[in-house]
Write a sequence for this structure.
């Protein structure tokens, strides 16, 4: 792995996690007065906005619970998780049990629960916290939220959808992708038969329905019967999203001892990376059009933190599972780009947003979309994969 031995690369990722990234969030993120976390952090960790985005609150609860459960039982990590969980329990849900999208610092609702990913990450958070604490109430919240997600899955945005009904119905990749991961995380709360059915259905959706065999790539949206839609939404590629889903598939392949699934996930990772890599400036594009048309998203050529760390996870797992040297070669290439562009040696943590040339576009370390999640999860996943 890179020009160093795998164990040395693994240690680099582990040290960045424990000596840099986690201390940054421990220092700057907790709101000791109102509860929960500040996620809008400038380059040096100063708070530039106090709104609280529920899906990011859930992600941070999960991250600290996960560290406590899987790395070391540090009291300060569990206390950090409880700080966010208490805030979510008090303020996070509407009367029907849906989690809002955003709240004021004090916990008053700002944006309606139109985004089902608030619920997904709340379920993930409370499920992991139940494991850490043994408190049944947290498991009950996770289970109730998960069942609510399943009820909403056919129409995730519900009455908050902006689409006119019936004209051009499409279904999105995001929900089956996340359910493939979430159901496994909640397996300690669910019947085995439920987990088996959901993961089997999700594997089919991800690897058959949203996989376009003509291009060897994952589409972000397809028609309800799984067909290609020659529209902006139907042609959209999100390389980072597709590659992140592939390590979810690799984890399922390991649990099921399914090398065919592992091989396909590895091949999709490599095909997506070959299509998504910017040969002129390096790094991975944010959005592309599968037919080569101009993408609708004006930010299509930005280089984002989560895209690169998720790609490194999939490449590390792909190499470990299959031994394919192409994964190793790509890991070296993506690792070199990532570590020379995203980490901030002066103030810690990682930049999130670069322009196409790799220059820092926004100096923030957290905001409405970036929080204590992708970077630490990735550092932990990669160091573990390289040490196996």
């Amino acid at each position: 792995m890179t020009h160093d031995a795998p164990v040395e690369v693994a240690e680099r990722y582990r040290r960045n996690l424990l000596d840099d990234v986690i201390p940054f969030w421990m220092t700057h993120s907790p709101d000791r007065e109102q509860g929960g976390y500040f996620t809008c952090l400038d380059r040096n960790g100063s708070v530039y906005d106090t709104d609280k985005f529920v899906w990011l609150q859930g992600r941070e609860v999960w991250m600290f619970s996960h560290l406590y459960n899987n790395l070391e039982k540090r009291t300060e990590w569990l206390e950090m998780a409880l700080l966010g969980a208490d805030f979510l329990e008090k303020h996070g849900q509407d009367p029907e049990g849906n989690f809002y999208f955003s709240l004021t610092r004090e916990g008053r609702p700002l944006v309606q629960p139109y985004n089902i990913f608030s619920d997904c990450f709340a379920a993930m958070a409370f499920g992991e916290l139940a494991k850490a604490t043994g408190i049944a109430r947290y498991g009950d919240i996770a289970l109730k939220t998960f069942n609510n997600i399943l009820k909403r899955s056919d129409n995730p945005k519900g009455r908050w959808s902006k689409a006119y009904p019936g004209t051009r119905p499409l279904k999105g990749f995001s929900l089956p992708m996340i359910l493939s991961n979430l159901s496994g995380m909640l397996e300690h709360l669910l019947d085995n038969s439920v987990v088996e059915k959901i993961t089997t259905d999700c594997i089919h959706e991800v690897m058959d329905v949203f996989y376009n065999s003509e291009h060897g790539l994952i589409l972000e949206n397809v028609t309800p019967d799984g067909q290609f839609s020659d529209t902006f939404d139907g042609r959209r590629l999100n390389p980072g999203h597709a590659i992140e889903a592939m390590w979810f598939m690799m984890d399922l392949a390991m649990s099921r001892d399914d090398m065919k699934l592992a091989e396909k996930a590895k091949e999709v990772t490599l095909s997506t990376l070959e299509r998504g890599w910017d040969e002129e400036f390096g790094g991975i594009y944010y959005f592309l059009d599968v037919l080569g048309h101009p993408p609708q998203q004006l930010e299509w050529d930005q280089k984002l933190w989560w895209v690169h760390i998720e790609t490194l996870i999939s490449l590390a797992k792909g190499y470990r599972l299959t031994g394919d040297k192409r994964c190793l070669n790509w890991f070296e290439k993506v690792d070199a780009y990532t570590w020379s562009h995203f980490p901030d040696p002066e103030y810690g943590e990682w930049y999130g947003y670069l322009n196409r040339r790799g220059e820092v576009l926004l100096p923030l370390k957290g905001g409405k979309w970036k929080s204590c999640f992708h970077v630490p999860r990735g550092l932990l996943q990669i160091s573990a994969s390289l040490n196996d």
Notes: The chain is about 55% helix and 10% strand.
